Amino acid sequence: MNSVIPATFSFRFALPVQRVDGLPRRGKQLLKLSEECQIFWPGSELGESGSPLKLSAAWNANGLAIAAEVSGKQHPAVSNVDRPDATDAVQIWINTRNTQAIHRANRLCHHFCLLPNGAGRDGVDSVICQLPIARAAEEAPIFSPDAFQIRSARRADGYFIEAWLPSECLNGFDPDVSSQLGFYAMLRDSELGDHCLTVDAAFPFASDPSLWQTLNLISE
C-alpha cells in the first residue's frame, strides 16, 4: 500500500560534497568529477522508484560544480530556453546559508535550470538559465547565461551535462562562514517524467526552502 506521505518527507538528509581544487578545468572536460563526488539520491534507497538521474557535485572557494547523467531515454532531450522550468532539464535550488526554518526564499536562495540543448543559433547548445523563485521575500541577483559554464553530451539512452556555478553568481557563498548549503534537485523530462530529490510536486519545494536538503561542504 502506498503511503500518502512519501517516506523521504520524514527525514532530513545531509549530503557530503567533496572539495576539488582546480575546477573548472581547461579543455574539453569542464569538470571530470570522480565517482567519489556522486550525491546520494534518497528516494532510491527508501523503497521508491529508482531515479534515471545520477547527480554529482564538488566545490572549491571559486564556486560549485554540478554534473548530471540522465539514462533510460529512447528519444533525444528537447529543451526550450523560453520555458526553462517546464522543459527537459535538470533543475537545482541552492540556499547559500541553509536556513531551513524559512518558508519563503530570500536573497541567498537561487534556482538554476541546466538545459542540455535549446540554445545557440541551431538550438543544439547547452545553457544555464537562472530564474527568480516564486513567492520570494527577497530575490537573489539574477545573472545571464554567459556568467556560467556548461557542457553537455548526448548519449545513446540520454545525456550527460556538467555545469560550473562561480561564487560570484551564488549570492552569499562563503564556505569559510557557512560550510552547509540548502539544496534541492529535480529532473524534468518529457519522456521520463519528473524525478525529485525527495518530495514531489505535491509539496511546494520550488518555493519553500524548508523542504530542501543539505549539502555538507567537506574540506578534507
Task: Provide a brief overview of the structure.
It is built from one helix and eleven strands, in the order E-H-E-E-E-E-E-E-E-E-E-E. With 220 residues, the chain is an all-beta fold. It has one domain (23-218): Sandwich (Immunoglobulin-like).
What does this protein structure show overall?
With 220 residues, the protein is mainly beta. The chain has one domain (23-218): Immunoglobulin-like. 2% of the residues lie in helices and 38% in strands. The chain is built from 1 helix and 11 strands; from the N terminus they run E-H-E-E-E-E-E-E-E-E-E-E. Strands 1, 2, 3, 4, 5, 6, 7, 8, 9, 10 and 11 form an 11-stranded mixed beta sheet that branches. The protein is globular. The model has no long low-confidence stretch (mean pLDDT 92).
**Number of helices, where a helix is a run of at least 4 consecutive DSSP H or I residues:** 1
Compute the gyration radius: what is it?
Answer: 16 Å
| Main sheet: strands, sense, barrel | 11 strands, mixed
β content, as a range? 35-45%
- Return the domain count: 1
Q: What is the rounded distance between the termini?
A: 43 Å
Order of helices and strands: EHEEEEEEEEEE
What is the CATH T-level topology? Answer: Immunoglobulin-like
Q: Quick one: CATH class?
A: Mainly Beta
Poorly predicted parts: none
Number of strands: 11
pLDDT averaged residue by residue: 92
Tell me, what's the shape?
globular
Helix content: under 10%
Query: What is the annotated CATH architecture?
Result: Sandwich
Class inferred from helices and paired strands: mainly beta
